[in-house]
Design goal:
Length: about 270
């Protein structure tokens, strides 16, 4: 199977609400539990629905905020997407992923008006070394689950808690459909939490993320995602993974993931 999901059907009601049904393949299998989907492809399939949802000229996605309600079970899922705040210059879109009768992920997305601001454009995030000459990084393949095995990684700057890792995949998000750079790269941004863990293996503490916040000051391009990540643990059971996101043209946004730190079972 060369995709993470198979589309079953998609319907649009009279109010413009879109409901799509998919079934996940084993390529979407997560790292913490063999019966779960990885949050990366779950993010990607939501982004694939957002990309198709009521597109408007001179508007683009600026922020996606995804909250994870619990284990994202493998198998059939339903994604419902609707506008909850319409507007001429900004609009708020809600996407809800359900499976096995439960809400799995809820995403709130701001789509924003674009304009020519090239005369005042400027970034403080700096470009980083491109992946072409970097060695293969096998660290991500130490994770369990099929999803990480579908991703190629390269790095020459990685240690516990901090590093730069480039990621790419040739697996399509949906069987029989081409995958845009936006869907492919934003999907993989969830992997920031697993590429620079503060602990050596085997882990004494688990650190699953409860959310994924993505801010885009431009749309990503190409097939390589560079994640310049920092992972920090507080002293009371809560941590944070923070990243600058790059493509081969330079930085394009940032992401944050809040972590729940839990002792690993023997």
């Amino acid at each position: 199977m060369s995709a993470y999901y198979q589309l079953i059907d998609r319907q649009i009601d009279a109010q413009g609400v879109v409901t799509a049904h998919y079934v996940s393949t084993m390529n979407a299998q997560g790292a913490w539990n063999p019966n779960e989907q990885h949050m990366a492809p779950a993010t990607g399939i939501i982004c694939a629905e957002l990309e198709q949802y009521a597109p408007r000229q001179h508007m683009r996605i600026g922020r996606i905020s995804l909250d994870i309600y619990g284990l994202i079970a493998l198998g059939e899922i339903e994604i419902t997407t609707k506008t909850i705040r319409a507007g001429k210059t900004i609009e708020l879109i809600e996407s809800t992923m359900k499976g096995q009768g439960k809400t799995l992920v809820v995403a709130h997305t701001w789509r924003m008006m674009t304009s020519d601001t090239s005369s005042i454009a400027g970034l403080e995030d700096l470009a980083v070394e491109s992946p072409e000459n970097m060695p293969v990084f096998d660290g991500i393949h130490q994770w369990r689950g099929q999803y990480t095995k579908t991703v190629e990684a390269r790095s020459n700057q990685q240690r516990n808690g901090k590093g730069l890792v480039w990621l790419s995949t040739d697996v399509d998000m949906v069987e029989g459909q081409s995958t845009s750079p936006f869907v492919q790269l934003v999907c993989m941004s969830d992997m920031a939490n697993g590429i620079v863990p503060r602990q050596n293996r085997p882990f004494d503490w688990g650190f699953p993320n409860l959310d994924l916040q993505i801010h885009l000051y431009r749309m990503p391009q190409g097939k390589w995602l560079g994640i310049e990540a920092v992972q920090q643990y507080g002293a009371d059971g809560i941590g944070l993974s923070s990243s600058i996101l790059h493509d081969t043209q330079g930085p394009f946004g940032r992401s944050e993931q809040i972590l729940t730190l839990r002792p690993m079972q023997e």
